[in-house]
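re: that chain from earlier
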Amino acid sequence: MYNLPPGGGGGGNKNDIDQIVRGVATIAGLAVFFLSPLGSIFFAVTNSLFLLALLLPVGAYVAFNAWQYFNTIKGPCPNCGTECAVLKGEKNSLGMPSLCLNCGVAIRASPDQTSIEIVSGSNSVIDDDFITSDSIFDSIFANSDEPQKSSSLSPNEKEKQFKRDRTVIDVEVEEDE
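^ sequence. v structure.
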């Protein structure tokens, strides 16, 4: 007897009728809600968000590809042959320099906007004055005690500075046992 489900027993139909009435009342309540103006507002908001979630990424993808098609030039890097993309400039002017991500050479669009060319005299970013100014963070957070870097270094000084900045000191640590 202790394994019987709770509920009073007796085989009455009262519980069955209560369950049916609850189900019918729920369905009727939902129907009244969605047929009312409040339900139509709910549907309008839900459908708008659903369409926005579906159409915004598609529209952004199409817009970005259109912008990229009209404002960039794709082609091989003149130095290493890797596929690169650079921004177009105005007709018969030199475009903004960009970097080849493979070899580091400064490249830009040709004046006729049909191909990619090396920025004159540039073999790599290291040898070039491609970046002539410090970043905005350097000017904000620079220590006033440090002397400011001069971009008017001679080629010999640049070479020494390059070697000094790239020197690796290898230290091996031995553990005492």
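The mean pLDDT is 78.
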